[in-house]
Amino acid sequence: MHWGGMEKQEVNRKQGRGIGTIILPLLLDVFIVNLAYFAALWFRFDGSFALLTDPTNIDYLFAWAKFAPIYSAVCVAVFALFRLYRTLWHYASYPELVRVLLACVITGVLHVVGITLLFCRMPISYYCIGFVFQTALIVISRFAYRMIDFLKDVLTRDRNVGRVMLIGAGMAGQMILKDMHHSRTRHDRVFCIVDDDPKKWGMYLDGIPVVGDRNTILENVEKYRIEKIYLAIPSASAEARRDILNICKETDCELKNLPGIFQFVAGDVSVESMTNVSVEDLLGREPIRADLQEVFAFIHDKVVLVTGGGGSIGSELCRQIAEHHPKKLLIFDVYENNAYEIQNELGSRYPELDFETLIGSVRDSRRIYEVFETYHPEIVYHAAAHKHVPLMEDSPNEAIKNNVFGTYKTAYAAMVHGCERFVLISTDKAVNPTNIMGASKRLCEMIIQAFDAKIKAKKADEIPQLFTHEGIENADKDGTGRVFREARTEFVAVRFGNVLGSNGSVVPLFKQMIQNGGPVKVTHPDIIRYFMTIPEAVSLVLLAGTYAKGGEIFVLDMGSPVKIDTLARNLIRLSGLRPDVDIKIEYTGLRPGEKLYEEKLMAEEGLKKTENDLIHIGCPIPFDTDEFFRALRPLMDAAYANRTDIRDKVRKMVVTYRQAE
Fold first, then answer.
1. What is the C-alpha separation between 138 and 120, in angstroms, rounded?
2. What is the number of alpha carbons within 13 Å of residue 299 lying toward its C-beta?
3. Which SS3 state, helix, strand or coil, does residue 206 take?
4. Residue 319 to residue 349: CA distance in whole angstroms
5. In the prediction, which pLDDT does 264 show?
6. CB of 256 closer than 8 Å to CB of 275
């Protein structure tokens, strides 16, 4: 009862407040409309009460007084019809002004007709002056809120406000500007607008000058003491956006960006929809949008296994595969926390998805065999790998155990269990590798090529089964060799460069350094890398997997390389700070196994085109597969024995491996 009583009191209080917001303006209107016509009558008689109350004129005063209650009711009814008591006048603009003027015209006409027919004909000046006074006073009373806000803005425009430059005087820019003007709590104010359309230069948009094109950004930032720049050109190309941002980042201003045209189409254009400019915006290319219809047809109603499914690439593979309605998705990872996260995410986003999250290592052949025998995956995306170059330089045997023999055991299990396609996620570091991680990934590519060559030659039985313990994983269980004769798996690799935002990516590392106040550590001022976003890379991996005939190394077009030093400086500027002033940049020297640039192809490899201009095929470098298979057993034994000469053994197998000095 107590809470019910309080709730009822709260409702009554709100209702009372709502009625109050109507009654007060209503009473004010009654006062204004009658005052206006009394003032008109007073002016008609030269502002003299003596003349107004003279017996020859007193009938006019009586007519006004008798008609006042009637006219008050008429005005209230008309004003209510035009919703003048249900408008938020703090935000009133042109449509509200039109409604006020129409209401005043109608009530003015009704006043002329009503007082003339009911009482007497009034002087012409009474009608005219009364209408003008009433209209002016009603408009002033309604727009007083905005006038007060405007005066406050004028008086405080140079104090305690964030000074903003708006880039873009189109519809999106106008919507941002209107949103800022209507906000009563936001303390930012636009002081100037930049637009590349010369027809708009020198014009004013809602009182704000359009000062020039992008080439005037730097001078106007200084002239207007700008602190923030809002980029509101959602339809601009990635190149145009990059060029403008490259100018903006030469300032010390905080940058905000309206991400894309879809916000504009959806009507979601406000200051809140602005986002921080990301490093992707500075890459200067349109996002890669692959047509995934072929992927849908390929994956639909199939059992798909993703190894390393909890990692940055693996988890995105799981997300995109889930969208293409597989029969069953298997997420396989050794790290339970990552696996748990993607499991919860997919369970929430795709409640109809049939999927299993399995914990295990690709190095454990018995566990891998168990997975294949239980679920019979038809497609495998092998993303499980150790990827961190410096860590693998310190633990080279682990790179060989996990990357090389984890791939080998998974590939062998896929082959003998009738898997249709096996897609290896490789890296540009496999090209002319200077570190053990890159060399291990090149060995993985060679495994894929060797498996495919033996299967096509109908010699799958010559592929040795490697394991570190005897057990149930023996492939030819019935001793007939049928499992090898029926081998049909197509093995392919997809090679790409660095992925923005992936685990171990340089971008989150730099952001953390900036957040900690610096310094930002760059290994070398001239080091360059290729970059792609995680969704872009994964969509192309999926698409490349559909093109496979077996044995290919697909190479993704990563666009132009990016200088890491430039990337670091851009990230500092995007944080509103100055490189080498607010945040120092330190050059630490190349790390063990690191090189200045990554190559997408070996010099010996050529490129073949595919149906997609962003996906190419590298012609395989020939090597003796029998000799390669014979060398794998000693390499595995050396790795599991933690031999210190493991790099020498790898160098003999990967002739392009040249350890960095």
1. 26
2. 30
3. coil
4. 9
5. 37
6. yes
Quick one: tokens of 65? 């007084």
> Per-residue DSSP letters for 388-403?
-HHHHHH-HHHHIIII
The DSSP symbol for 234 reads: T
pLDDT at 431: 85
So what's the pLDDT on residue 318? 94
For residue 266, the model assigns a pLDDT of 37
Instruction: Indicate whether this model's pTM tops 0.70.
Output: no
Whether 531 contacts 564, CB under 8 Å: no
For tokens 């492939």, the residue is: 475
- Distance, in Å, from the CA atom of 346 to the CA atom of 338, rounded to the nearest integer, reads 12
Q: What does the DSSP 8-state code read for residue 460?
A: G
Specify the residue for token string 């096509």.
456
3-state secondary structure 323-358: CCCCCEEEEEECCHHHHHHHHHHHHHHCCCCCEEEE
Q: DSSP assignment of 262-305, as one string?
A: HHHHTT--SGGG-EEPPGGGGS-SPPP---THHHHHHHTT-EEE
Alpha-carbon gap, residue 97 to 230, rounded angstroms: 30
Beta-carbon neighbour count of residue 606 at 10 Å? 11
Distance CA 654, CA 441 (A): 10
Question: Residues 165, 192: contact at Cβ < 8 Å?
Answer: yes
For the chain, how are helix, strand and coil distributed in percent, rounded to 5? 50, 15, 35
* Beta carbons of 499 and 531 less than 8 angstroms apart: yes
Distance CA 653, CA 661 (A): 20
Q: Six-digit token pair at 343?
A: 């499991």
> Within 10 A of 166 (CB to CB), how many other CB atoms are there?
27
Which amino acid appears at position 624 of this protein? D
Task: Assess contact for 422 and 382: CB atoms under 8 A.
Answer: yes
Say if CB 616 and CB 540 are below 8 A apart.
Answer: no
Q: Extract the tokens encoding 179.
A: 């949103």
DSSP bridge pairs for 583: 579
Q: What is the pLDDT of residues 27-84, one digit of tens each?
A: 889 999 999 999 999 998 888 888 888 888 888 989 999 999 999 999 999 999 988 8
| Rounded Cα distance, 467 and 18, in Å | 79
Identify whether the C-beta of residue 381 lies closer than 8 Å to the C-beta of residue 410.
no
User: At CA 194, angle to CA 192 and CA 200, rounded to 5?
Assistant: 100
> d(Cα 659, Cα 661) in Å, to the nearest integer?
6
Of residues 192, 16, 178, the one with CA closest to residue 94: 178
Positions in the chain short of pLDDT 70 = 1-21, 88-93, 145-146, 149-160, 181-187, 238, 258-291, 468-473, 498-505, 530-531, 557-561, 574, 576, 591-607, 620, 660-661
**Number of CB atoms found within 10 A of residue 369's CB:** 21
Q: Are 320 and 569 in contact (CB under 8 A)?
A: no
* Burial of residue 542, with CB atoms counted within 10 A of its CB: 0-12 exposed, 13-18 middle, 19 or more buried: buried
Secondary structure of 116-140 in the HEC alphabet? HHHCCCCCHHHHHHHHHHHHHHHHH
Rounded Cα–Cα distance for residues 301 and 323 (Å): 12
Q: Which two tokens stand for residue 518?
A: 């610096």
Predicted local distance difference test score (pLDDT) of residue 518 = 83
| Structure tokens that stand for 257 in this block | 């960006």
Q: Which two tokens stand for residue 67?
A: 């008609």
